[in-house]
């Protein structure tokens, strides 16, 4: 079995290796990622976490803590320790640095987030963040706050390449880059974008390598057709056939019938 990737391995390789990273939604995707040699994964810290862990035993898994799931740093600690017990290696958190600091002080590897943070997009809109120097400096300051709070990793999403490069070169954190060029320590995409299973909007930085939406549509049509055939078969008495049934031997059936009359 391949040795499990841990946070020490990732930080020791900073500046020496470019990692590939995927957000996965199922055990099947996790197993496929590990088979493809992709060992940095993220997923939600929900019922899928244990299955993802079992399917990708050598992967480094950053499990997402839902924004607002913790109202205090102590609550964040409890949720983080629970996720670690269920197989996470790090906890993704878009909460403030005081939450990150509480987890990091207890030795929990934390992944912070700067740039386009979907959980905080009410303040920024869904757009590239940091095109102007003033806004880029705000992103950098937030990255430094997260670094000072003790985070191990930092997701950098949809910011200019120059900003992502500066953050990556000047922080000891592992930077996980999505939509900001090839300068971060990992190249990060969501599996739904890679597989083409997303039926909605595809972000500009995404690239499809398969068309699972078409395959799923074909599978769904096949499901409907099979179910219709089953229903029609029942209606015309074509199912069940004798070979699908269990029958008692004649003598046993007669003995049962006689005894049943007395009950």
Descriptive report:
The chain has 263 residues and is α/β, with parallel strands linked by helices. The protein folds into 2 domains: 7-210, TIM Barrel (Alpha-Beta Barrel), CATH 3.20.20; 216-261, no CATH class. Helices cover 43% and strands 15% of the residues. Strands 1-2-3-4-5-6-7-8 form an 8-stranded parallel barrel, surrounded by 5 helices. Helix 2 runs parallel beside helix 3 (48-55). The longest helix has 24 residues, at 212-235. It comes from Tabrizicola oligotrophica.
Features:
263 residues, transferase, alpha/beta, single chain, 2 domains, TIM Barrel, eight-stranded parallel beta barrel
C-alpha end-to-end distance: 61 Å
CATH architecture of the largest domain: Alpha-Beta Barrel
Assigned CATH superfamily of the largest domain = Phosphoenolpyruvate-binding domains
Number of helical regions? 11
Shape: elongated
